[in-house]
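Hi X.,

You mentioned you wanted examples for the new student's onboarding notes, showing what a folding record looks like when two proteins sit in one file. Here is a clean example. The first protein comes first, with its sequence line followed by its structure tokens.
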Amino acid sequence: DALIARHALPSIDTASLARMQAELDRTLYVFDLRPQANGEASDQSVRAVPGGQLLMHFEQLVGTRGARIVLLDDAHRLRAAVSSFWLTQLNQAEVFILDGELSSQPPSEAALEPARDAAAKGGIAPRELAAMLVKQSDRICIVDVGPSADFELRHLPAAFYLLPFTLDPLSQLFEQRGDDCRIVFSSPDGQGARLVARDARERWPACNALWLIGGTEAWHDDGRPTQQNWEPAQLLTAFEDDWGSVMRVSATRRDQVWEDYLRWERGLSERVMRDQTVSFRFF
């Protein structure tokens, strides 16, 4: 309470949260910081994540600058207060602490719409895709458009990899497999795949682009096989979303990578001070 009062960290009630959820022209992120949060969220719009991870991986969890962020916590609000204290100083979003319990009411009609119309917009369930692969595997190309780290962890068998910042490599795939090739996009939860399928259909109107509902996670949860290994030919684009994390470097190169990282880190403060796009709001 003292931390919230000292820095005027904004709080909202459940009625205000409901109004924010109904405003579809503004991006809203709702994060549940409670340790027991997994599986308790009333709908898929709430994501369970520890407060420390939310701060450290902010750029991976919050994709819209100037969005609203609502933090859920137990009644003491300690995790939410500490997380809000740091996130507010990043000055990249409006941060609110939920003062009250998360409503258990069912998702709104707007929230249900994407799932309800998934099939009409090219969505395909894991069982449907599995049946298609049995009948016509040579005419189906699975293209994973998620983060490269997730592709390394798990992907559908024989899946190609594509970073969605460019669709150009798909032209080569069409040439190799023919115009009747059916492309099925996948991503960890399917949402990125849905957007890439939409973009592909806009660029190639004749393209029969589908996307895997629930993504690789749903495919795996349905008991379907996945792979970790891949051949170079499966990479339609390089892993250019990876910034050289020391966690993904082989042991033989790790010492040099750590030296480079520490050199970069020691000079970071000076570079930040010169960067006109940085607008931290320090308390």
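Then the second protein repeats the pattern, sequence line and then tokens:
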Amino acid sequence: MGTLVALAFVTPLFGLSLSPPDPALAPERIAVEEVAGVAAFAAPFAALDDDGVSLGAGASARGSASIGGDAEGDADADAAGSDEAAGDEDSEELDSDEYAAQLHERADLTRIHRPLGIATYAAMGLSLVLGTIQYYNLYGFFADQGSNPCVKGTAVFGQGQCTGFPLLHAGAGFLTAGLYTATFAVSLAMPDPDDASEGDSEYAKTLRMHKTLRWVHFGGMVAQMLLGIVIANAETFGMDRANDYGTLQALATVHLGVGLATFGAMTWAMVLML
């Protein structure tokens, strides 16, 4: 009994009650006690929660920063890719424009090269004919010094072709040299954007042969001019027909032979392209 009295006396001091709670006050009291209990229970973990929140925020921030960084990196990569693609497009556009410009330039030069080539060929043919006549008058066809047409008085175009400067042949030669130089320069200036001379097609082989023959008749033209200068100015080089007939005849024969070979190379080159 004494114990029960003591317990009844002590319990109110510790917030306990043996009597049922007033129903009107019960919800408020329960709520306060629950809040107090949660606060009391959560207090020891406040620091941990703070750390946890801090860690969570930091992680979130880092995650956001990482995502943001990745997004920025992706954006930079996309921008770089776009710039590179734009650069490639610009480069392709420039290449396309340059290709079209070279095609136009080749077409324009072809319109010049073809008539120049025909004119050069005609002038070379005329020069060869006049040169052959000149050779025949002075030296016959392997005639000796006493039996050539000039000595016999049967020179083609008259005896005036036997002395002095060979005006007809020289004039045709100078005309040929001028036209040839212009034609050759145009051929070198012509671009070839399609590399038409490359490959195993018939056209590529034909064009390669045409280019090879270009250097053949170029060498022939140079040799022709040098030999012509020497023969026409024999006295300057210490030679004359009376004392050096054999030497001059040999030089003239070589000059004629080179002329025939050069004209042959030109003919072959023209046939290939026509």
